[in-house]
Amino acid sequence: MSGSNTSAPGSVAPSSPEPLSFAVHSLPDPRALGSSAQQRAGRWKMLLLLALCAAPVVASYFTFYVVKPRGTAYGELITPTVEIPADLPLTDLQGRAVQAESLKGQWLLVAVQPAACGAACERQLYVQRQLREMLGKERGRVDKLWLIPQDAAPAALRPELLAAVSQQGIEVQVLQVPRAQLEAWLKPAPGHALADHFYVVDPMGRWMLRAPGDPDPKKFKADLDKLLRASAGWDKAGR
After folding, report:
1. Domain 68-230 sits in which CATH superfamily?
2. Extents of the domains making up the chain
3. Pairing of strands 107-112, 197-201
4. From CA 7, how far away is CA 12, in angstroms rounded?
5. 136 phi/psi in degrees, rounded to 5
6. Is 88 exposed, middle or buried (0-12, 13-18, 19+ CB in 10 A)?
7. Which of 101, 177, 120 shows the shortest CA–CA distance to 146?
8. pLDDT tens-digit profile of 181-201?
9. CA separation (Å) from 132 to 72, 109, 140, 141?
10. Are 176 and 154 in contact (CB under 8 A)?
């Protein structure tokens, strides 16, 4: 019949399209995305913090061991640096053991002189004190250390000398060390003795500069100023 809506025999009515399935598991979890972003941000912050902490050390060693300003240094830079032996047998004047590790954390201005300490020794200790005082507000970053090579019996200082190196505020740390072990760490220039020099040790416990024992104070101070500027922030004031 005309206008009939009937289908031809055997035909199948077209099926209606099925809606797309949006199952929960098919979408990323917003919480997981947030957590991942936070972790990445945390890693970047940690790396930035490590870079900031390492920058002064890197700058100091880049200046002295890559740029190598030998033409402007008064003292002799030691390359490579020589680490203080962890088992260096140090003792104080009372014979008590002192750990080498305890010397780290500060710049050290080191004199090596016998306990008898004659005129040249007294002169060097005086210059050591004056050099530190010349550093002004930076002097708290430098310790004065007097190492006594010990050959046999423990050292005994004259009472007036002991009083001089023990004055509050300008005291000198005095330690004894067997000569053989000391000579295995610090070395004088060819043709000189250990007592002929000052030795500068960085806060990481590395011997890195040697200067005359009776130096030009202004020139030697200039070296110390450069070291302290280059290492600002990675040593500890006062110990």
Report:
1. Glutaredoxin (3.40.30.10)
2. 26-58, 68-230
3. antiparallel
4. 8
5. 60, -130
6. buried
7. 177
8. 999 999 999 999 999 999 999
9. 21, 8, 9, 9
10. yes
